[in-house]
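re the bet — no i am not wrong, look at it urself. input seq straight from the record:
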Amino acid sequence: MKITQLYTYPVKSLRGTPLTTAKLTKHGFRYDRRFMILKVHREDAANPSATRLENMHIAFFPEMGLFTQELEISGQDGTTDRVLIYYRGPGETRSKNFEIPLLPDTSELDIIQVVMHSSPTKAYDMGAQYNRWFSECFGYEVLLAYLGENLRPVLGNLSPNAARGQSVKSNSWLSGIASSIPLLGSTTKESEGITFADVAPFLVVTQESLADVSARLPEGEEMDMTKFRPNIVLSRSPSAWDEDFWGAIKIQDDIEITLTQNCVRCVSLNVDYATGKPGTGEAGSILKKLMKDRRVDPGTRYSPIFGRYGFLAKEAEGRIITLGDEVTVTTRNTERTQFDWPGLTN
């Protein structure tokens, strides 16, 4: 097999950035999902400083599909690396743009708490300049958060250690969290942790499975791969959905990624990126089409799956992968794995 596409998502839930090469870290591609946007709710008119922050995911805020991202990498120490954000509303002919430093100075930024899918971390409020620009685009108040040196704990059975049965299995949502989470915000770069990616550092998919999805659409229509939000796209898989059974892959003969669980799919697949709204017609019902035969993970029996979540072997930290790299499956499971994450398992 070969790598045919690579994507990163500096700001979570905005549209992805295609890459030709990617630097690997154990927490994902460099700069992947280091920022996220939260909606600000001011619920007490008598106390304007009292706010509630709501995580924004494209499944619930489809207007996030109106934003695109472009990386500008200096190749030096990273201090001048930036991401350019472009926003064009429905019917608009010109886009607004804004730039965000990928390694901002956090010394004077306020610290906030973010809990995503029951997995907590500390983060930094990027401040008025950034919050104002995004708020003007969305038409309501939002906050841009930067992860900085922090990480979120990996819960359930997603991590390689848990997948090998080395973590405590829980029978309840609460005990699952209690056995998996360190002290709030205490996950560090040395521990097993993730960024603002949902539940794992990498998502691996195949073009053969995408072709199967496209075959469910009317003739002449193709499913947009980027709606699955992959990091690594492979071609020449033996068949569609063969990846359901992959336990590990190797890139360039010696870069190993352990594939622990399936990726559970939601209504984000139905978003129309041109309008920033739920799609109409056949393309707007792709999730329903997958429900018919892709609810094959017993841990998420009400949701279809597409792709495999992965974790990088420690020895591959800092390596570079490139379009065209050869990929082989080094471990194959005899049965599909069973997804387990507190609050997400059904």
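see?? The first helix runs from residue 128 to 138. told u. also Residues 121 and 186 are 7 Å apart (CA to CA). so pay up
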